[in-house]
Structures are given as structure tokens and as C-alpha cells.
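Re: [ENG-882] Designed sequences occasionally contain unexpected residues at chain ends

Forwarding the minimal case from QA. C-alpha cells:
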């Protein structure tokens, strides 16, 4: 497990009975997490000081219950990066703090390419959401193509870039179906040094058809491999799908990419420290192929 333990503006204070108590800047939130199946005592007094709590409905979905007035949106920092967060309709805040591990990995690869090859690496960020990986890559000096099917999420990503001072960087903001975009990039013979993929567990295609990540993941990786070259550096695949283990993703990347380009593949769980227990909460997983720059 790789732990994102360099946060100052975020922390998990405690977790029990399907919920986690988190601090986002100065805001305390209680959010559900199905992995938290233990029933440890909630002795921390901050459980009773939460500003808001997301309540799941037995029929699906849920709602926020507010105990104190909090901003419609607020900003938290991670080193030189600044992100705008808010209470979204389905328990989320617009940021996944555990992904800081992967932001830092990409930053190292980008800086290594700039220093050793004296050229600006090209990054493709697919299913790019609110653009945390995009902002991080821009801050490190890369040129980024940011692709997400949601116009609203792409606008949010632009706000994050502005907050972090990289809105003037070399970036393309595209609202598009990711697989369709990849297919067009293949026809245009465009290539990238780094590809980041963070696909949802479930999605809908351009015609409204429902698809499951487990059914589409091999196709996604195989098609994305056509956007890489012998000089490409990395492909990162993230997943929050419980049925898709890190080892399965590693197998796919190894089979598709190592056979074609060489290099190495590895996988790991992502985790966040829990302040009160001193333990670590698992938060999804990543498989990463790298050509030569190993960290």
C-alpha cells in the first residue's frame, strides 16, 4: 500500500460503522464508506462537532445534513497545489486525497524527462474529473490534454488550474467521451509520454448505453497503448471498483504494454492515515507501467 501522508489541509480523524470523520481545511465532514465494516468506539469528541454529514438512503442515493453553516465551496492546499472543494450531491467533495501518491509519481517522471531529455512531456489525462492530476502535471511543467465527458467537471478543473496558478499553462480542455477521443487520436497519429486513466466503475456511452469498467478496461488499455511510443514514459490506471483488484490491472498492463514496449509494471493499494487509530484506510488502487524511470 502507498500512503498519501503529506497532507496538511486534509486528514481522516477516525472511522467506524461505515463512516469516516474527515477534516477538509477547517470543515469537518462525516461521509459513508462501505469498506469501514468495523465497529470501533467513536470516542473522539469531534464526531459531535461535524459541520455536515452525508446520510445514505435505503432506496439509493442520499443527502447532506448540515449542522453548521459552511461555505458553498472552499479551497485546500497540497504543497504548491490548490483545489476547490464542496459538498456534492453524492457524498463527494470533488477531490480524492489518496491520489496525491500518483500526482507525485507523475511529477517525478515529468521533471526527470525535462532534465534528462530537455523537452516538455505530453500528458493525456482521461476521465479527468476536476483535474487534480492535470493541475499537478501542469505545475511540474508538462503539456496536458484533459478529457472528461462532463462540462461541469471540466469547468471545475479550470477553476482548480486558476487557483494553482497554472491556468496559462499548455493545456487542452476537452469535453468528450474518452474512448471516442482516444479512437480519434489514434487516427490523427497523436502520441503521448504519459497517460493517466481514472475511469468510473459504471458509465454511459454516447448513445446512453450502460457499461461496466470490468467489461471495458482491457479495451481501454489496448486502445491507449496505440497512443504510446518507444520513448513514452508511463501509463497509470486507477480504480475504485471493488471487483477489479490491483493484480488484475497489473496483469492487463503487463500483457499489453510490456510485450510492446518493454519496461516494468507494478500495482498497489492507495491508502490514507487515520489519525486516532494510527492505521491506514484503503482507498482504491493503481497499476502503473513505466518504461525506464522507476521510483
Amino acid at each position: 500500500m502507498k500512503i498519501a501522508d503529506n497532507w496538511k489541509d486534509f486528514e481522516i480523524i477516525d472511522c467506524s460503522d461505515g463512516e469516516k470523520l474527515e477534516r477538509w481545511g477547517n470543515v469537518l465532514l462525516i461521509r459513508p464508506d462501505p469498506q469501514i465494516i468495523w465497529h470501533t468506539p467513536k470516542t473522539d469528541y469531534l464526531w459531535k462537532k461535524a459541520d455536515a454529514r452525508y446520510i445514505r438512503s435505503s432506496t439509493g442515493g442520499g443527502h447532506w445534513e448540515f449542522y453548521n453553516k459552511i461555505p458553498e465551496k472552499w479551497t485546500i492546499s497540497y504543497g504548491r497545489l490548490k483545489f476547490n472543494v464542496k459538498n456534492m450531491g453524492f457524498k463527494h467533495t470533488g477531490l480524492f486525497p489518496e491520489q496525491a501518491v500518483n500526482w507525485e509519481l507523475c511529477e517525478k517522471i515529468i521533471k526527470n524527462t525535462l532534465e534528462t531529455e530537455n523537452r516538455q512531456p505530453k500528458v493525456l489525462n482521461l476521465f479527468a474529473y476536476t483535474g487534480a492530476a492535470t493541475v499537478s502535471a501542469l505545475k511540474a511543467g508538462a503539456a496536458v490534454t484533459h478529457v472528461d465527458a462532463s462540462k461541469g467537471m471540466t469547468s471545475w478543473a479550470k477553476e482548480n488550474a486558476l487557483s494553482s496558478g497554472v491556468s496559462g499553462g499548455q493545456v487542452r480542455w476537452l469535453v468528450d467521451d474518452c474512448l471516442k477521443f482516444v479512437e480519434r487520436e489514434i487516427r490523427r497519429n497523436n502520441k503521448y509520454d504519459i497517460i493517466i486513466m481514472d475511469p468510473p466503475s459504471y458509465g454511459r456511452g454516447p448513445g446512453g448505453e450502460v457499461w461496466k469498467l470490468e467489461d471495458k478496461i482491457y479495451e481501454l488499455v489496448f486502445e491507449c497503448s496505440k497512443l504510446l511510443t518507444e520513448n513514452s514514459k508511463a501509463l497509470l490506471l486507477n480504480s475504485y471498483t471493488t471487483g477489479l483488484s490491483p493484480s488484475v490491472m497489473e496483469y492487463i498492463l503487463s500483457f499489453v504494454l510490456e510485450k510492446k514496449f518493454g519496461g516494468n509494471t507494478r500495482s498497489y493499494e492507495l491508502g490514507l492515515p487515520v489519525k486516532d487509530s494510527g492505521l491506514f484506510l484503503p482507498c482504491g488502487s493503481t497499476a502503473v507501467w513505466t518504461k525506464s524511470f522507476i521510483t
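QA comment: On inspection the terminal residues look reasonable. The longest strand covers residues 280-290. Proposing we downgrade this to a documentation issue.
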